[in-house]
Amino acid sequence: MKLLKDRILAEGKALSDSVLKVDGFLNHQVDPELMQAVGLDFCEHFKDYGITRVLTIESSGIAPAVYTAQALNVPMVILKKQTSKILNGQVFQTNITSFTKGTSYELTLSRDYIHRDDRVLIIDDFLANGEAATGAARLVQMAGATVAGIGILIEKSFQNGRSRLEQAGFDVYSQARISRLGEGIIEYLE
Ligand code: G4P
Ligand code: NA
Ligand code: NA
Predict the structure, then answer these.
(1) In angstroms, what is the C-alpha Rg of the chain?
(2) What architecture is domain 35-177?
(3) Whether residue 84 has its Cβ less than 6 Å from ligand 1
């Protein structure tokens, strides 16, 4: 998606050969106009997939996911990283380990918001090793629903997330696919 790729080149900062900082429009400050364009692009790509719910992980997935859900005219559901006591007993949970951050956490989905007949589009900001997306997909499957697709804003194609998700049978669409990062270097595939 050209608008996102151009914005990453203009404002993104490669901090190392593995980490891209995009705090100015995605992870800290959010550009609603860009997020709306991102949502319309996901809608264009997934419009014939029969999507009934958009699912994302708090917090940085929420902005692009809400515009995607609006464009597809379906509800958006947020997976929680912190368990609320009032959700106890009526939730699906799975453990996620982040290799990038060296942390792990429980991801929680209330049983009320994904049903067996749902076709779910998972949206997230970054795809690195695919742990978060794989965990989100696990929760969808625990609910008996179908993962119809996975939409990612920024794929770090030099990490193994995409291949893991594809091997698991998921349909992955990434708007910006980065082949290489380095201090001051951001390169796309193709
Ligand atoms: P994985 O799920 O693909 O295996 O990714 P990983 O564990 O590496 O990601 C952990 C967190 O770091 C995620 O955010 C992810 O979006 C973010 N992340 C991964 N690579 C990059 C990167 O190059 N740049 C930036 N800015 N973020 C990256 P999170 O902890 O879930 O936080 P939130 O931002 O969604 O709140
Ligand atoms: Na994220
Ligand atoms: Na993030």
Answers:
(1) 16
(2) 3-Layer(aba) Sandwich (3.40)
(3) no
